User: Fold these one by one.
Assistant:
Number 1:
Amino acid sequence: MSIKRNSLPPLDTLLFFDSVMRHGSFTQAASELHVTQAAVSKRIRQLEDWLGVALFIRDKPRLTPTAAADSLFEKVGVTLEFLAQGLEAVRAPDDPPVTLAAMGAVSMFWLQPRLRAFALGETACPINLTTTDHPRDLTAPSHDLTVLYGDGQFPGRRAQLLFSETLVAMAAPGADHAQAPLLTYPLRGPDWIGWDKWHAQTAHRALAHHPRLPCASYAQSVGRALQGDGIVLGSLPLLEDEVRQGTLAALPGPRLDTGKGYYLTMPQGRVASDNASRLWAFLAA
């Protein structure tokens, strides 16, 4: 199929848009992309001009995605991942990379700091990280390693627990929590727990009357909470860095040990490459 160049926006605007949507913040996107916040704002404006629609409502300090942004976000993520895989397929490998897959929030808040530490060590190797919240994509056979959420029983996969899940209401310190909205997100599987299940299983009703604010993903709900936009159902081990740094704090109320956790997995019977074995050992330590 022939695609005219003028039918596509500049590729960098899509990269910037994807980062802003995942983080829910121009500032955090700028940090990830190693550019200034002004550069991020410029690319987003460029994409909005090209599309002819607004993607964000800029009501400081809040950054609210529009319906158009939510619709575009998932398509852009799939497109960028497809492009990355295509480029990798034709690039001559010097050292076979490890393909690692994880959900957006796990990648952003737990994996990224550890992958940076791994990259600085003596056992560093190339890593291709795929970020998706869709279970079928997470378990694609092309992935060497995958971080999965569940009870540890993953048919056809070897699994090792990384951390157990404890869910608690969390928000940015200093924010007004009295009527702050509960940040919601799509529940991608039967094991996923949202506010309704949390209220039911904890019998805690103090927050039940709060309004709801939908987010495109769990990662985005955390990003919105970091901005002070609402209350997130936070996984304590997953967000331990944010709690330690003081950017998120647990609110008074119960903590729900779900009996689930996040597991490092690989296909049963697959012989792991040396690089995959080293990365497994590092993450599971």
Note: The chain has ten helices and eleven strands.
Number 2:
Amino acid sequence: MENIGTGHWIFAGVFTAAFLVFLFWSYRKDARTHALHYGSNLKIILGVVMLLFVIYIFKRL
């Protein structure tokens, strides 16, 4: 961390902020398409998480 100066931290902060703004802007632009094609995605993710949790519990017994 000795070679990381103030300019590097400023660049990292500006880059992160710009990236997040672009990410949210792109998501809002495609939100209707995501809802149409990936509507039940939350159920699938929840099912996978629950399955992994059950496997973890049975492995610990």
Note: The mean pLDDT is 88.
Number 3:
Amino acid sequence: MQWEVVIGLEIHVQLSTQSKIFSGSSTAYGAEPNTQMSTVDMGLPGVLPVFNGEALKKSVMFGLAVGAKINNRSVFDRKNYFYPDSPKAYQISQLYYPIVGEGHIDIELDNGDKKR
């Protein structure tokens, strides 16, 4: 039996927006700990997140730049986990229906060949 090695990447990005993706809290680099948070970030009962439209715009721009599929339907999923750094005990993810689907970047090698 022969095996084929397949390696995938999970890539995280920080979009250059003035506020977080689901709250109006600042994203200023280098701020003191616990100074850029809101009731949404803390997961207090009764608060609802509001999606950052600028994050959507920048996500779509990135997707177009890498030849990705921009999905007509997008769903955010709640991934439950328990870590001391997350008082909400969940992370919002896009496992099944992301804004931006599969894309690619072509890289030219030293010998002139291109790899995708």
Note: The mean pLDDT is 90.
Number 4:
Amino acid sequence: MWPLSIIYGLITGLRNFLYDSGVLKSHEFRLPVICVGNITIGGTGKTPHCAYLLDLLKDRFKVALLSRGYRRKTQGFAMAGPGSGPKDIGDEPAELFDRFRDVTIAVDSNRVRGIQNMLQVKPDLEVIILDDGFQHRRVTPGLSILLTDYSRLMIHDYLLPYGELRESLGNISRADIILVTKCPPDLSPIQRRIVVKDMKKAAYQNLYFTTYKYGKPLPVFRNIRYPAENENSLEPDKIAGVLVLTGIANPAPLNEYVETMFHETRKLNYPDHHMFTEDDINRIIAETGKLPEGRRLVLTTAKDAVRLRETEEKIPEELKKLLYYIPVQVDFLNDDKEEFNRLITEYVRKNKRNNRIS
């Protein structure tokens, strides 16, 4: 695999050089554009961190989010609206739109065209968040946030296909903020200092540590009557067994959390962005049947929930009553939340204007 990684590195390195030298043009917009991305494949937590930014900015500024819309069935530019699902806009934008109905969310693999179309539809926008836009260099962001998973730091990785790096580690320099994500909540000061030392961040870069906070399970389907719907019905001591159902890149943090909360658990993991089929539903039913007798749950993620709703007609009513998802929120370690929030809001406040494209 090493020879292929060398070739891959030469190709991506040449591409970045052409952008850095101005041979390939990058488009700059006259409004704040915040890029959230990574240089590794797999889940670093982009969607929960985009949700954090939307939550931070939505009541202060007219904010929008533009994503590629990975694995959707549509082409070109599309705006999220009533009835939009994973097939229309992709599962991650659908998950965000399900939570932020009053925020402008759109998809386009061509980010320049996507922003231009968004500004035509919503000319009063004050800030745009680019989801997974770090490698999309045709747009010059005003602020770049780079994510790396604590359990597999990008500095210890190698270029594709030998490793999981999309581009060389030297490109970390393009980031203004580095977020070490999915950290243990009890990460010690010594462990933090080791990561900071290993990351070798530049003086102009800010580095923060984030973790996940899991909320109370919520019904996947809102239009059916769930059994024993009261505050105590989902308490761990009331549950005989749990099936953890995931179709995400890195289910380990959720699996570990559920195992700490419930005594009897089983796991059923599918690939990231997996669209559930009738055969999958039958397998879920079979795996659920292996749980101990009593109150059973099938716990999944918010991202999987939007895809399960796409196959609602294939899911028996009895299984629907067992399906819940666990909401996830980003939290900061080491009291860095206020500093991060201030940095983001100050950047938007100082750079927002009545927007025309440059």
Note: The chain has a mean pLDDT of 94.
